[in-house]
Amino acid sequence: MINLAIQPSDASATCLCVSSLLASLPTTLRSELSIQACATPTTTALLWLPSARLGDTSSELRRILLECRSIRFVQLPMTGVDEFVPLIRELRARRIVWCCSKGCFGEMCAEHALALTLSLLRRISCRSTTPEHVDSLVSKRVVIVGSGSIAQHLCTMLVPFRCTITCLDSNTSRSDLVSSLRDAQIIMIACALTQATSNLFNCSLFSLLSPCAILINVARAEIVHTPDLISALSTNKLHAAAADVFTPPPAHQLDQMQMLITNAKLLVTQHSAVPTKLIGSLLAHRIRANLETLVESLQADQQDQPSQSHWLGKVDPEKGY
After folding, report:
1. Residues 125 and 67 occupy one common structural domain
2. Are residue 36 and residue 116 in the same domain, yes or no?
3. pLDDT by residue (tens digit) across 109-153?
4. How far apart are the C-alpha atoms of 312 and 295, rounded to whole Å?
5. What is the pTM of this model?
6. Would I find Oxidoreductase among this entry's keywords (predicted)?
7. What is the CATH number of the domain that holds 16?
8. Can the peptide bond before residue 250 be classed as cis, meaning omega within 30 degrees of 0?
9. In Å, how far are 63, 149, 282, 287 from 15, measured between CA atoms?
10. Do residues 10 and 51 make contact, with C-beta atoms less than 8 angstroms apart?
11. How far is residue 315's CA from residue 298's CA, in Å, rounded to a whole number?
12. What angle do CA 132, 136, 142 make, to 5 degrees?
């Protein structure tokens, strides 16, 4: 029997209906679980489902994990887990399996990136558009910063446009990054937020890009330094940009930002890459799959057999995502 704790108590605020999740579990899986309202020393698995309004909950989670040393599996609901990485690394010796939602929403984020790209090229958000100002995605040189689920889906979606596509990952050197971005016409950010990618796109990098380049960000806002982006767009060092996640600029740049939006050089959506109504079902599918894997893993341990565990969204402590 697996003692499964679901916390915090307002977990439904994550767009996941916990009661519906539990009701949807296969009978065979449900029979293996004992649901707990909060973690205890006997807890084996923890669904940590804080709402965004709670802010950083890593310290509270740390307290629970230090008190409940039987926990072997933690499921997080978000894709970016940077706030939990120090804790994951601190408790590495306990060999806790940490999983997040990376890969859950890749297809929809890729779809949104494509929509943003076409909107800028076709100037759909511009009030007055003439044919000479409209461009096409066909045969463009596209660089995708990232090689995960979003990037993989983007590569598929871009096939009909006959683009030349380059994907860069965490192993890409700085020189190769600069070399690839220098000639890019479309740059799509689809990587995790780490120490290496925080403020990666700043004035130094913008100065190396083609002034005709378009920047699309469907990853984390902190990867792009907003004041430098506003400056690059305002001085035509960058043709246009779109972001689903965006850190507000300082007060003195607010008028500049509004002018860029009015002139269709900047397009900002409200973290809408993944429709809210779909988050719950996608997250529930991820949790069900990982709970089934947990049961199989524990059964293999009890029978002293090698585990064939296939965790979805497993966090790599070294990479930080």
Report:
1. no
2. no
3. 999 999 999 999 999 887 766 777 899 999 999 999 999 999 999
4. 14
5. 0.91
6. yes
7. 3.40.50
8. no
9. 25, 21, 10, 13
10. yes
11. 19
12. 135
